[in-house]
């Protein structure tokens, strides 16, 4: 992963970990509702670990109620086609297989790079990888809530930023489950 990818990987790690300075930086163009959700992470953070190497998992988020592996992707385009790089598809398939074996939901976080500042609001979207079976427990709750990536005509995975779940909506959902 290049320097730009590392930047967004660190940003997501700090957001989910409840780092107030990073949260305040990201929410500058967010709605009040999005900002409130992000700020709630200060009191209800995840423990986030950066995974060593590139085996399809960049981060692992852990909290008493939810745990999930995350692969971070960023693009200036609203659509990310996995067919552009065969390694991306192989990586996703391996992650899906490993996660299904462990009853974990593989999550992809898509960070839209704001070129020219034309996009306002939450820059993060979450997607889950399609897994061959319905998951149990908290992973099953997330599987039913977070949109799955779609497949193109040739079977390659596609992430359309506008079809993903806002990270702020996920945080709000996860915190509602705590009540």
Notes on the structure:
This protein is of the alpha+beta class and about 180 residues long. It has a single domain (about 5-175), classed as Trna Endonuclease, Chain: A, domain 1, CATH 3.40.1350. Helices cover about 35% and strands about 20% of the residues. It contains six helices and nine strands; from the N terminus they run H-H-H-E-E-E-E-H-E-E-H-E-E-E-H. Strands 1-2-3-5-6-9 form a six-stranded mixed sheet. The protein has a three-stranded antiparallel sheet with strand order 4-8-7, with no helix packed on it. It is globular, with a radius of gyration of 15 Å. The termini are far apart. The model has no long low-confidence stretch (mean pLDDT about 90).
What's the arrangement of secondary structure elements?
Blueprint: H1 3-16, H2 20-26, H3 32-40, E1 47-50, E2 59-62, E3 67-75, E4 79-81, H4 86-102, E5 107-112, E6 124-128, H5 137-145, E7 150-151, E8 157-160, E9 165-166, H6 167-176
Parallel strand pairs: 3-5
Antiparallel strand pairs: 1-2, 2-3, 4-8, 5-6, 6-9, 7-8
Helix pairs in contact: 3-6
């Amino acid at each position: 992963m290049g320097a730009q990818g590392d930047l967004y990987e660190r940003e997501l790690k700090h957001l989910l970990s409840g780092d107030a300075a990073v949260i305040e930086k990201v929410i500058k163009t967010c709605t009040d509702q999005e900002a409130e959700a992000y700020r709630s992470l200060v009191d209800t953070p995840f423990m986030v670990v950066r995974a060593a190497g590139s085996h399809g998992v960049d981060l692992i988020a852990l909290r008493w109620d939810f745990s999930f592996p995350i692969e971070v992707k960023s693009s200036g385009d609203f659509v990310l086609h996995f067919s552009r790089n065969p390694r991306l598809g192989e990586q996703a398939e391996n992650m899906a297989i490993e996660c299904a074996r462990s009853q974990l939901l593989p999550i992809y976080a898509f960070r839209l790079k704001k070129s020219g500042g034309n996009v306002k609001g939450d820059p993060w979207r979450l997607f889950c990888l399609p897994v061959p079976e319905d998951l149990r427990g908290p992973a099953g709750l997330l599987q039913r809530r977070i949109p799955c990536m779609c497949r193109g005509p040739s079977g390659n995975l596609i992430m359309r930023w506008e079809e993903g779940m806002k990270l702020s909506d996920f945080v709000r959902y996860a915190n509602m489950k705590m009540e």
